[in-house]
Each structure stands twice: as C-alpha cells, then as structure tokens.
Amino acid sequence: MKRYCKNIRLDKDWIMACMLECFSDKWKRRDVAGFLAGYQTGQPLSVRAVSRLIQEKRSNVDPLLERAAEDLAREIKERDVHFPEIHYSMRYDGNSGKLREIGVESIKQQIYNYVAVNALKELFERKIGKYQCASVPGRGQVYGKNAIERWIRKNPDKTRAGAKADVRHCYPSINTRKLMRFLRKQVKNDDLLYLVETLIASYKQGLSIGSYLSQWLCNYYLSFAYHYAQQKLFKVQKRRGQEKRTRLFYKIIFYMDDILILGPRKVDVKKAMLMLIRFFREELGLEIKPNWKLFQVDYIGKDGKHHGDCIDMMGYKIYRDRTEVRRSIFLRARRAYLRLRKQVQRRMEIALDLAYRCISYYGWFKNSDSVHFKKKYGIEQLMKYAKRRVSIESKIHNRTAGGQLAAA
Per-residue DSSP letters for 24-87? Predict the structure, then answer.
C-alpha cells in the first residue's frame, strides 16, 4: 500500500506559512493579538497595543510570528503540543433547522489545524472522491447541484430512480480509533500522526463540529464508503454461460453526510443503498437513518405534467427542467428582502446586518431558476442598496481605524 506525506517537514517555515493562512481573515480579531502578545520579549505591550500594531502594518508583528512558529515547531518535535480546552455551545442551523453542538477552539489549536490539514493535503487529494462535496475548495453546494442537474437532464434514462439517505450524528459518531488506524496505514510521517492524534484527542466525542481539521477528516473517513460504492456495488448476470458484472447505479454523490444514489432501476438502486448501509455499519461503525428514501426521480409525462419526486439536496429542489430554492430558505430570504424594500421605500438607514443577510441570500437565487422572483421583488435593485450600505460601512470603519492609529 502506498503511503503519503512522508516528505512533509513540520518545521518553522511550514508552520509560519500555515499561520499566515489561518490569520488571513482573522487579523482584526482580539484572540489573534492575544496569541501574538504572548511571544513578546522585553517590555510587554498590552493586547490592545499589539492589535493596533497589526492594524497599522502587519509587518510590525513579524518577529512575534517567527517566535510563535519556532515555539509550535518545537512543541511538535518534543511531543509537547498543548492548547486551551475546547468550549462547546449549542447553535441553531438555519438551513437544516437543527440545534448543533459547536466546538469553539483557541486560536492556537486553529493554527495546528491548518498545519495538519496542509500536511495531509496529498492524502486528501488522492482519497477524497470527485463527488464528495462540502469543505473541499471548489466543491460546495453549487458544484454538487450542477452535477445533479447535468446527470438528470443529459441522461434521463439512467436517472429514473434515486435513493437519498444521511448518516445519524455523523461527526460525533466517527470512531476516532479506527480513523487513526486508517491514517497510520496511509501516512508515513510520525510528527504529523502525533499532531493529528493530539488534536483528535481534544474533542469531546468523535470529531468536533466547527473544526477546520474535522471537516477534512470526516470527508476522508467517508471516502472509504464512497470508493466502496464505486468499486463494489455491482450485480452479476449470466448470459450464454458467461458472467457479466454490471454496476447497480449510475452516479453517487456525497454532500458531507448526505448521500444520493441515482440509477435506471429502483430495484438496483435499493440494493445498492442496502449494501452501502451495511458497509457503513460494519466497516465504519456509522448508522444510516432508517427513514432513507427510495423514489422515482421527477420526470415530465406525456400529459406535460411533473411526476415522481424532485431531488431535495444542498438547499435546492432539482427538477428535470428547473431548479428551485428550498422552501424554508426561500421564505427566510423573501422576508429579508421585503424588510429591505420597506426600509428603502421609507428612506430609512438600512440595517447593516440586514444588508449582509440579503447579500448572502442572493447566491441561492443567482444559482437557481428564480428569474420571476427576482423581477417581482426587484432583487437586483435591492442588491445595489445592500451593497452600497456595506461599502459605506466599510469605508467608515477604515477611516475610524486609521484615525485611532494616528492618534495613538
């Protein structure tokens, strides 16, 4: 078996690059300034003073970054990696309507996450499947939606039946001992294995929701099921004394722990899903929810009407001839746009959080067949007001920050 990551050295330069990547969108955060303040020499500055130095010119803290990188590299080499305990809190997921326990990690642990993920990239690129979406750059909701649209519209005869399932409590249910066994078999790098095992050991149970490393490790763990489906889900047919192996399905896609199988025949798709469920249970120790669904994929009959069920996945409802936004997301977005329109009509100052919300919702309608909705509610014009509000706020913030630094 080929082993990966053997040429990766977790030295000062590697950690410095990972640290800068981790901080790329966090420079204004207080915990970043607090972390760097711990690596001062001589007369120490306050966290606020370090934060001002960062805002004035990031190169001001280069000596602190170098000392931090040296210290983290030393901890890995001496097997002395430590960081503050993870704090957990319950948060509402607006897309799914579920309460999730999210782990909030210290900035030091977040740096180590980037160190581990970047070091494991070679493994992840080889093992995570082409249609395992979520968390992988360039393979998000739109990537998965576009793939499903392409399959069911270009090959209707091969996508008549579908089965949709999801893993019960995927992250906390992942067997971390089994995960480490997989990694030890495929990774030849003692420093990296030590770091990953230390990070995993800090989680309360299984993998932690909200962790950068957990996203990648979850996809890696589920990749064994993805490749099992691609390589083993076949049926054997005998014709004229010869055996012929035929795949039970046409396409399969994972959106993290959501699974969709498409194929020409219901009986074959059902068999494929049952075999996959057994693999999840016996090989990965994960349970597929018993309410998984076998259905006939939406099609347009001779009467010109839609029959069967659309594919409801990744926040979209995908039909043979169009794609809609999921109802729950649509209603929240429409409510936000109506509030924005009301404030615009009354010449009120647009609430900043509302402007951000409307901008984020726009992506759903941009990537679906929502021309009528956008025209009816004047979404394009409302987006101009929302973007202008965010732009003005950004300029005010930058001027204020510049003035405070000058005064200091």
Answer: TTTTT-HHHHHHHHTT--SSPPPHHHHHHHHHH-GGGGHHHHHHHHHHHHHHHHTT----PPPE
